[in-house]
TrEMBL record:
Residues 1-26, 277-296 are annotated as: Disordered. This is Cytochrome. It comes from the Bacteria. Residues 282-296 have a biased composition (Low complexity).
């Protein structure tokens, strides 16, 4: 994932400041969404097993416990390596998309260099399909990689693209996707709807990061929210269903509360502390020595 100029990696996830050099103040949209736990252990186990059984060294390792352990250790990180490689590929594709938008806006761009980087990684087809989609949909960019801030709930995020398509203002989020077994683009995750609706609810947009200049968010009047899956075979655009946006916004609101309470408990101090056994019980007085007894 790319790192916008005002974003900071913190112990509480990615957070945003109001200007370059400023302190982190609010969580990012993706940090808020990540509060929803997703169990990936099954996928991680599948990736590790697949890498191990397809390793050409496995047959020669049979009977050698040290060699089998070495292969198993390497395979155990397969999911992590796949995730990191996919993230790096996504950054390259997103960068190319941003440069195409900047070029269309008449601003300084490095689209040619970005395409060359994709070519060096054998990823030119992503750029080819993206260019086809851009022309087919008649995209007219309004703003690229625009950072928004919501004061009411307390979060910020960076949107891939705001554009006009078919006479409608669209907020667009690009997702780089692999291919299914039949050679089609893998589908978008529904969490993209939360990401888009949170972007739509921006109250300010960044004008200048160095000075910390912001202006009112001008694109909140019922824009179309589009998730766009970019693959080597095709680009598939999908609109967030307008009838369910409120439900996804409420879910995002709840996850923002989870983030806040998690941060509060993490900084509140020790949750558990050791406790000593109680002191020994003092033996009760006997009748002969108790106050007011006949012995007195």
């Amino acid at each position: 994932m790319t790192q916008p100029s005002l974003a900071h990696a913190t112990d509480h996830g990615r957070m945003y400041s109001r200007s370059i050099g400023g302190s982190p103040e609010v969580p990012s949209i993706t940090t808020v969404i990540s509060q929803e736990h997703k169990d990936m252990t099954g996928w991680a186990g599948h990736m590790a097993t697949s890498e191990l059984v397809n390793d050409q060294r496995l047959a020669g390792a049979i009977g050698s416990a040290p060699e089998l352990r070495r292969l198993a250790r390497q395979a155990s990180s397969a999911a992590e390596r796949f995730r990191d490689a996919a993230a790096a590929r996504g950054d390259r594709v997103h960068h190319y998309a941003e440069q195409v938008a900047l070029r269309s806006l008449g601003l300084r761009d490095t689209a040619a260099a970005a395409r060359e980087v994709l070519s060096e990684h054998a990823e030119s087809k992503f750029a080819d399909r993206f260019d086809e989609w851009w022309e087919l949909y008649g995209v007219t960019p309004l703003a690229a990689e625009v950072t928004v801030w919501n004061h009411s709930l307390g979060y910020a995020g960076t949107l891939d693209l705001v554009a006009e398509i078919g006479g409608r203002t669209c907020i667009i989020d690009f997702k780089t996707k692999g291919l299914t077994r039949d050679g089609r683009s893998k589908p978008l995750n529904e969490s993209v709807v939360m990401q888009l609706v949170a972007g739509m609810q921006g109250e300010e947009m960044l004008v200048d990061a160095a000075s910390g200049e912001w202006t009112a968010w001008p694109y909140g009047e019922a824009p179309l929210l589009l998730g766009v899956a970019v693959s080597e075979a095709e680009v598939v655009a999908a609109q967030a269903n307008p009838t369910i946006l409120k439900a996804h916004w409420h879910k995002f609101w709840a996850l923002r509360q989870v983030w806040e309470h998690s941060r509060t408990t993490a900084t509140a101090g020790l949750a558990l502390r050791p406790i000593a056994p109680p002191p020994a019980t003092v033996a009760p007085l006997t009748p002969s020595t108790s106050p007011g007894s006949a012995a007195d």
